[in-house]
Amino acid sequence: MAVLDPHKSHQLVRDIQSLLTLNRNILVRWIKAHVGYRGNDEAGTLAKKAITEGVVVKALKPRCGLKQHLKERF
């Protein structure tokens, strides 16, 4: 498993390793593409755009988190 290998150079692996040293809980799930998960198609589109265009893309926050976001902001 890449996360357990201290010699991995991929930035994502290093970021996860750093979080683990801070005793953070991390849950990683594999989601099969295109099987009806809400937001899955948009996530795939944004990921492909980031890879091909090399830009950071912003996605809207899900509606379920909107109330909390507004409380924090205002």
TrEMBL record:
<dbReference type="GO" id="GO:0004523">
    <property type="term" value="F:RNA-DNA hybrid ribonuclease activity"/>
</dbReference>
<protein>
    <recommendedName>
        <fullName>RNase H type-1 domain-containing protein</fullName>
    </recommendedName>
</protein>
<dbReference type="InterPro" id="IPR036397">
    <property type="entry name" value="RNaseH_sf"/>
</dbReference>
<dbReference type="InterPro" id="IPR002156">
    <property type="entry name" value="RNaseH_domain"/>
</dbReference>
<dbReference type="InterPro" id="IPR012337">
    <property type="entry name" value="RNaseH-like_sf"/>
</dbReference>
<dbReference type="GO" id="GO:0003676">
    <property type="term" value="F:nucleic acid binding"/>
</dbReference>
<feature type="domain" description="RNase H type-1">
    <location>
        <begin position="1"/>
        <end position="52"/>
    </location>
</feature>
